[in-house]
Amino acid sequence: MSDIFDITETLDVKGASCPMPVVKTKSAVDGLGEGAILEVVATDPGSMSDIDGWAAGTDGVDLLDQVEDGDEFKHYIQKTA
Q1: How far apart are alpha carbons 47 and 25 in whole angstroms?
Q2: Do the Cβ atoms of 58 and 30 come closer than 8 Å?
Q3: Is residue 47 helix, strand or coil?
Q4: pLDDT digit string (tens) for 29-50?
Q5: Average pLDDT in the chain
Q6: Candidates 7, 18, 23, 56; catalytic one
């Protein structure tokens, strides 16, 4: 759990590799209401650039932060529309 963000839901995609972290993130975001924050926990280092690129090219989402925490990569995405 993040002390920085009020997380609405956590998506565990540990063990999944490209493109599944992005595919599952998109699906999870689609099910959230406006203003909700999704925490995505991944183990694929490529998820850092993949989720960043997806968020940059997707209307209605903001990538708030990405954190490398040992072998895990945490992404914080807010649905804005």
Answers
A1: 11
A2: no
A3: helix
A4: 999 999 999 999 999 999 999 9
A5: 95
A6: 18
Neighbouring CB atoms inside 10 A of 17's CB total 14
> Which alpha helices (DSSP H) does 1-81 contain, by range?
20-30, 47-56
What would the two tokens of residue 72 be? 């895990």
Q: Is 43 an annotated catalytic residue?
A: no
Q: Which of 45, 51, 46 is nearest to 75 (CA)?
A: 51
Nearest to 26 by CA among 43, 8, 38, 44: 38
* Mean pLDDT, residues 57-77 taken together: 97
pLDDT(3) > 80: no
